[in-house]
Amino acid sequence: MKARSAQIAAACQCIDHCFGFAIWCEDFARHVDPEDMVMGLDRGFDLISDATRLHSFLAVRKMDEFFRGAKRDKDDVIATDLGIDPQSVLGNVGSNFLTTAERTSINKGAAHLTDQLFLEPESELELDEILKRSMPVFARLTTELRKADTAKEATHWLDKTDALLKRVEENAKRKQDEAATSPKEAASSGKASS
Asked: N or C: fewer beta carbons within 10 Å in the chain?
């Protein structure tokens, strides 16, 4: 595989990893049997949940580095290496993928061992908000990565990432629809029981 295609494949995998925690929640966590937790699997569940959340935050941080204009190390891969204009891909997100506060929070809570432990329940909401805001960015990025893959050697990874983004979008829509119908169902069942 040519170096450029390998870089594109790595960028796709990084996008995918941003959603590791979301996939854990969707595919595994919601199917856990409470009986299993009583039987001692709660520690393993918590460990994997925390690990996927940390992994997702680190992938988000890598994406922030990818969109920044300067390399920290010469072997870092950034958007401009692939002929991608970061600002056009970021669109209305701003000049950086992460806000300064988000980056600081991820650095202190996930990327470095500090007094600020990051695994508070609120961090799930922070990750979810970053990913919701980033969906259009990821869609534009995969389009640009396809253009950059002139050798067509990264098609497999691009297809997997596109499929994952579509799945995440469908899951978000399903949850939104469920949330919209739940209050209506609760109201109608309340009327029926009166």
From this structure: C
Report the pLDDT value the prediction gives residue 138, as an integer from 0 to 100.
97
Q: How far apart are CA 33 and CA 44, in angstroms?
A: 13
Give the tokens for residue 132: 């919701």
Q: How far apart are CA 125 and CA 50, in angstroms?
A: 14
- Helix 155-193 × helix 3-18 angle, to 10°: 10
- pLDDT above 50: residue 194: no
CA–CA dist 77, 99 (Å, integer): 21
Structure tokens that stand for 114 in this block: 């500090």
Tens of pLDDT, residue by residue over 54-69, are 999 999 999 999 999 7
In whole angstroms, give the CA distance from residue 5 to residue 8.
5
Extract the tokens encoding 119.
């695994």
User: Which token pair is 3?
Assistant: 């170096």
